[in-house]
Write a structure and sequence with these properties.
alpha+beta, 1 helix, 12% strand, 2 strands, CH_dom_sf, globular
């Protein structure tokens, strides 16, 4: 586990994820959705 307090996303429970962990989680989520055959979206869609 890599944690960097400078580039962190703070969750409601007080835990922090580094930017790398955050984007890795999003990527893993998108891969899982695709493997289940559900309609997918790109990470850039989250910015819209």
């Amino acid at each position: 586990v890599v944690e960097n307090p400078v580039d962190s996303v703070y969750l409601p429970d007080g835990a922090a994820l580094s930017a790398y962990q955050y984007f890795e989680n999003v990527r893993n989520f998108l891969v899982a959705i695709q493997e289940m055959g559900l309609p997918t979206f790109e990470a850039s869609d989250l910015e819209k």
